[in-house]
Design goal:
By secondary structure, the protein is mainly α. Helices cover 28% and strands 4% of the residues. The protein has seven helices and four strands. It has helices at residues 2-24, 27-37, 81-84, 104-111, 124-127, 152-155, 160-164; strands at 78-79, 121-122, 139-140, 185-186. The radius of gyration is 50 Å and the shape is rod-shaped.
Length: 209
């Protein structure tokens, strides 16, 4: 009788301890304890995680970062040879002075001696030595060191109506005036180059301002 009580007390103590351990253990450990004390414990279920065995879709490739627009190349500059070679005293009193050695036209003709070699007629700005009205003395983004692009140099002085009245200008479009005219002078009063389309002989020369 006393032995039965001891067995029951032992089993009760074990059940209590087992319950406490089961509360603190994981599912696999709980089943081990249950099978130790009891028979007929159902087998452990093995559940595969959701999506197991399914091919994992790879993340779409990241789009390449947008490229910055290419910077526009700066126009190549035309540099006056004396300025390029740092021969400032070719035009100035010294390399450290802004004062010119003489009048602008006189200084330019020291190098450009043949400018009026065959010029029976001379363009007023060139004859007056107003070279800087059309040319930059150091450098420019335009050919011949011009101060402006295309026809804009000539249109600074020549009136639009005078230019439009010339039949030869009707189809000129955006062509450079220098394609037909010598901007410094020539053998005719319109400074028309040899081989260029000629205007009517009685057409007056555009008035320079």
């Amino acid at each position: 009788m006393q032995g039965m009580r001891w067995m029951r007390a032992t089993m009760a103590t074990g059940a209590i301890l087992g319950t406490l351990l089961l509360a603190a253990c994981g599912a696999h450990t709980k089943r081990e304890w249950l099978t130790f004390f009891f028979d007929g414990v159902p087998p452990e279920k093995t559940e595969s995680p959701a999506g197991a065995g399914q091919p994992v879709a790879s993340a779409p490739p990241k789009a390449a970062p947008a490229a910055f627009p290419a910077a526009k190349a700066a126009p190549e500059k035309v540099v006056h040879p004396p300025y390029r070679d740092r021969r400032c005293d070719a035009c100035h009193e010294s390399k450290f002075s802004h004062k010119l050695r003489g009048k602008t036209g006189e200084i330019c003709l020291l190098c450009h001696r043949n400018l009026f070699a065959e010029a029976k007629f001379r363009h007023a700005p060139a004859e007056d030595g107003s070279c800087l009205g059309c040319h930059n003395p150091h450098e420019s983004a335009e050919k011949h060191l011009l101060t402006r692009k295309g026809q804009h140099v000539c249109r600074e002085c020549h009136d639009e109506k005078d230019l439009a009245s010339a039949p030869a200008h009707a189809a000129s479009g955006t062509a450079l005036c220098q394609a037909c005219h010598d901007p410094h002078g020539g053998g005719n009063r319109l400074f028309i180059k040899t081989g260029a389309p000629r205007a009517p002989a009685d057409f007056p020369a555009p008035a320079a301002r």
